[in-house]
Amino acid sequence: RVFLRAINQYADMLNKKFLDQANFELQLWNNYFHLAVAFLTQESLQLENFSSAKRAKILNKYGDMRRQIGFEIRDMWYNLGQHKIKFIPEMVGPILEMTLIPETELRKATIPIFFDMMQCEFHSTRSFQMFENEIITKLDHEVEGGRGDEQYKVLFDKILLEHCRKHKYLAKSGETFVKLVVRLMERLLDYRTIMHDENKENRMSCTVNVL
User: How many structural domains is the chain composed of?
Assistant: First the structure.
């Protein structure tokens, strides 16, 4: 909780002193995002790994601090305005890591950041190729590391499709991208599940699907 208060004070200072065009500090903002994501993903806050009694005790006393800092990260991202493009594709990995935390409200609040990133890059270059390449690479790594689940796949699909379909220029390419990533996620999750299967044919079939 002490760290959370410190990070929030750091965030206030960034907004007040280092956001406008003349004083914007890329490295400071970068440090903030990496620090906040490291805080959110640390072992001691992953409540689903605790016994129900310990989880209830922590929630009762402190609430879910992951959700608190996650909402703060989301707000800080949107505060960046025209500076957002400077954080693409570097911030795709950390944001992905945050959205993969198995907390439904946190996921719903932070997955839309991906659409915002697509939009930013599209306005800048008329495509979102850098974002797409980065999320595919990082997703592979994260799912292999044990993160991600069926609920995440469903939320990712639903939230991003809704946003893309409302956008004049991203409706078609956005939908293609979302379907691609969801299909990849399906195959990666299957592959992860079957990795320990004794049946070599099943493993080989999943490997071929991923490839």
Answer: 1
* 207 in a structural domain: no
Instruction: Report helix, strand and coil shares of the chain as percent, to nearest 5.
Output: 80, 0, 20
Q: Which residue has the tokens 């879910």?
A: 64
What is the rounded CA–CA span in Å between residue 127 and residue 120? 9
Backbone angles phi, psi at 146, to 5 degrees: 105, 0
Tell the residue number behind the tokens 């608190």, with chain if given. 68
Specify the pLDDT at position 197: 67
Strand, coil or helix: 139: helix
Q: Residue 62: which domain range?
A: 1-202
Q: Could you tell me the pTM of the whole model?
A: 0.93
pLDDT tens, residue by residue, 26-60 = 999 999 999 999 999 999 999 999 999 999 999 99
Contact 153, 189 (CB under 8 A): yes
Q: In whole angstroms, what is the distance from residue 4 CA to residue 16 CA?
A: 19
